Amino acid sequence: MNNIVLYQPEIPQNTGNIMRTCVATNTKLHLIKPLGFKVDDASLKRSGVNYIDKLDWQIYEDWEDFKSKNEGTYYYFTRYGHKPHTSFDYNKKDENLYFIFGKESTGIPKEILKKDLEHCMRIPMTDNVRALNVSNSVAIVIYEVLRQQDYNDLLMEEPHKGNDFLERD
């Protein structure tokens, strides 16, 4: 199972966008406290639109609480990583995969990263920016994971207007 983990997220709009991405990709979302917003915050709900009720998610008191309840392979996204996100094989369908993103202001603490340098990665980019927006990063990563997994039964056609929508007059 694929999992997105947000370590102490600060901006509700980013988390709302990530919630929507998780619903679209059948990905579980894990939020590690402290959160920089209330989970009933109007902007969080607005960013997640009306999909939050379909979201599989859980909130944890801290990093240790999260680790004690979740076994699998952890992948850490940090601007200090030395490997691109495309350098790993994510086809471990029988294993829980956790893609961990840090808080917007400071990322994932160095103490956590140093314990698993092998799984620290970065999304390649120019030296003109420090990092991408976390919600954009989550989307880039989860779709690379899903591409490698042949999209895990996600719909390849628009279900509401029909397969022939573009061909119709």
Please characterize this protein's 3D structure:
The chain is α/β, with parallel strands linked by helices. Helices cover 27% and strands 18% of the residues. The chain is built from 5 helices and 7 strands. Helix 1 (12-25) packs parallel to helix 5.
Tell me the major beta sheet: 7 strands, parallel
Number of helical runs? 5
Query: What's the Cα radius of gyration?
Result: 17 Å
Number of strands: 7
Give the CA-based shape. Answer: globular
What order do the SSEs take from the amino end to the carboxyl end, as H and E?
A: EHEHEHEEEHEH
How much helicity do the residues have?
25-40%
Distance between the termini: 41 Å
Kindly report the average pLDDT value. Answer: 91
User: Strand-residue fraction?
Assistant: 15-25%
Low-confidence stretches: none
Structural class: alpha/beta
Strand order of the largest sheet: 3-2-1-6-4-7-5
Briefly say what this structure is.
With 169 residues, the chain is of the alpha/beta class. The chain has helices at residues 12-25, 42-47, 63-69, 110-113, 134-148; strands at 2-7, 28-32, 57-60, 73-77, 83-84, 97-101, 120-122.
Secondary-structure blueprint of this entry?
Layout lengths: L1 E6 L4 H14 L2 E5 L9 H6 L9 E4 L2 H7 L3 E5 L5 E2 L12 E5 L8 H4 L6 E3 L11 H15 L21
Helix pairs in contact: 1-5
